[in-house]
Write a structure and sequence with these properties.
- The chain is about 0% helix and about 60% strand.
- The protein is built from no helices and eleven strands.
- Strands 1, 2, 3, 4, 5, 6, 7, 8, 9, 10 and 11 form an eleven-stranded mixed sheet that branches.
- Strand 7 and strand 8 form a beta hairpin.
- It is globular, with a radius of gyration of 13 Å.
- The N and C termini lie far apart (about 30 Å).
């Protein structure tokens, strides 16, 4: 398990055998979870939503605490929202319709 303080003051905890890539600029906050599990404590930034990509799935949030698990082989995403609201959708031609979730756990599969 590794803990990171992100450039925007959000925090990220990455589980064993997990892989992430980060892209933080003045215009965007974006992370790609390539495999595994991660916990995010996202700091509010109205000008730059926090975007998490995992395979064909996209999770967008403002100020949120959430656990995310991604299985690359199955393109399966699990999102557990601890605090706040997220929008989840299939951004790269995936079949998942955008949704909003608060204090719940959901599982998405690529069709």
């Amino acid at each position: 398990i590794e803990h990171f303080r992100l450039p925007d003051r959000s925090s990220l905890t990455v589980g064993a055998r997990s892989s992430v890539q980060m892209a933080f600029t003045g215009a965007r906050r974006e992370i790609a979870l390539q495999q595994g599990k991660a916990y995010f404590d996202v700091v509010a930034d109205a000008a730059r939503p926090f975007v998490l990509n995992a395979g064909s799935h996209r999770v967008v949030s403002a100020a949120t605490k959430l656990n995310v698990s991604y299985n690359q082989a199955k393109d399966q995403l699990e999102v557990a929202v601890i605090e706040g609201v997220v929008n989840v959708g299939g951004d790269r031609g995936g079949a998942v319709a955008p949704c909003r979730h608060r204090s719940t756990q959901v599982r998405y599969f690529h069709a």
